[in-house]
Every structure is written in structure tokens, then in C-alpha cells.
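Design job #97: recover the sequence.
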């Protein structure tokens, strides 16, 4: 069986460059936006500076009420300065949060694209099986370390396919039925063997595993799409 097509050495490098470039672009855009925003925000001490200027330019404000008014203005300026400072902090936190979300979204997007591409390659090339152990006594098949409990009929079908694969043979549905039932292929129905294959796939459960493990070659028959050297029969 042909091994799955592994991504070329340049693909991870290109993906890494895309991620780095995307992150750099996001950070640069948000940094420019933050600089422009903070530059256009009013100075936190602008109000206090105006009040101080009023004090300096109006020395004739000597009455108690006038001085009290100036003190209120000064306090208002201090409050305005504190509020503006807190606004700056809130804006900064929101920009940092937005940067983190955009970077995370970019990483997730690249990851999903990479996984989808990898899954497509696996579907095209088939599943790579490093070990396949069939235990007839326990009605169990161990595929790459994962144990699948099958019915006795499913184990028989899989065993027939495994033995045929070790002999480099491909079996039609009628031949599968003939081996299991002990009759001649001419006396067996093609649909009976196809039904056994379908039940075996249903027993394996995972659609991708079953579809890629058991290949159906048009007009020729069925076979296990794995290397015969990894098959073990108990």
C-alpha cells in the first residue's frame, strides 16, 4: 500500500511564515490605531492648565466667592484628569484584548486549514496501518493499538480479507461468501459478500477508518488497503 502523502518540507515553513506575517500585520495595525487614538485624545491636564491660567491672569479675583469658584474649577479639572486617565487604561486594555482575539482567530484558522488539507491527503492516499492483529478467539481486531470488538461474522469476513491480502489476492463478493460458507464461488451471490463487507464496516464504526481500510476496486473485488507485513492472525 502506498504511504499517505506527507506534506512537503516547505509547507510547514510556508504556514509558519503566513502565521508570523499575519500576527505581525495585526499587531502593526492595532499599534498604529492605538498611537493615533492616544495622540488625538485630549491632554488629561488640559483642564487644570486652563484653571491655572485663570488664576494667573486674574489677580483681581480676591473675594471669597470668586476664590471658592476657582477652587471648584480646579477640583473639576482634577476629576476630569482622573476620568480621562481611566479611559486611556480602558482603551489600552480593549486594544490588547482585541489583538489577542485576532491573533488567536488567525492561529485557529491556519490550524483548521492545515488539518483539512491533511485529512484530504489521508483520504486520497488511504489510511496508514502499522499493525493489524486479528483475534478470532476473542472476536477482536487491534488496529494501530486500538481494539475493536466485532461480531463473529465480521471477524470471519475480516480474517478472509486479511488472508487474501497476505497472499496478494483480491476477492469478489461471491468469493468472500464462498470462503466463509465453504461453497463454490459460482454457487454464491455477489450481493451476499457485499452485505458481509457492509456489516464489517458497520461493526468497525468509524466511517473513515472502515472506508479507507477496506478498499472496493470496481469490477475486481475487495481488499485490505494495508501492507501485508503488518497483519497478525491469532
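Job complete. Output follows.
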Amino acid at each position: 500500500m502506498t504511504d499517505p502523502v506527507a506534506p512537503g518540507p516547505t509547507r510547514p515553513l510556508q504556514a509558519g511564515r503566513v502565521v508570523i506575517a499575519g500576527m505581525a500585520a495585526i499587531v502593526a495595525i492595532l499599534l498604529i490605531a492605538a498611537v493615533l487614538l492616544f495622540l488625538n485624545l485630549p491632554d488629561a491636564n488640559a483642564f487644570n492648565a486652563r484653571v491655572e491660567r485663570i488664576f494667573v491672569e486674574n489677580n483681581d479675583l480676591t473675594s471669597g466667592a470668586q476664590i471658592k469658584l476657582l477652587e471648584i474649577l480646579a477640583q473639576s479639572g482634577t476629576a476630569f484628569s482622573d476620568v480621562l486617565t481611566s479611559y486611556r487604561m480602558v482603551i489600552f486594555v480593549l486594544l490588547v484584548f482585541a489583538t489577542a482575539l485576532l491573533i488567536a482567530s488567525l492561529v485557529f484558522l491556519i490550524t483548521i486549514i492545515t488539518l483539512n488539507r491533511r485529512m484530504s491527503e489521508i483520504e486520497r492516499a488511504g489510511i496508514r496501518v502499522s499493525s493489524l492483529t486479528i483475534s478470532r478467539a476473542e472476536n477482536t481486531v487491534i488496529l494501530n493499538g486500538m481494539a475493536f470488538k466485532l461480531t463473529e461474522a465480521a471477524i470471519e469476513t475480516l480474517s478472509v480479507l486479511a488472508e487474501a491480502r497476505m497472499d496478494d489476492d483480491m476477492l469478489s463478493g461471491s468469493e468472500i461468501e464462498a470462503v466463509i460458507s465453504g461453497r463454490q464461488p459460482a454457487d454464491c451471490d455477489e450481493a451476499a459478500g457485499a452485505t458481509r463487507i457492509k456489516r464489517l464496516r458497520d461493526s468497525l464504526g468509524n466511517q473513515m477508518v472502515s472506508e479507507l481500510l477496506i478498499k472496493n476496486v470496481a469490477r475486481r473485488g475487495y481488499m485490505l488497503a494495508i501492507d501485508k507485513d503488518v497483519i497478525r492472525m491469532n
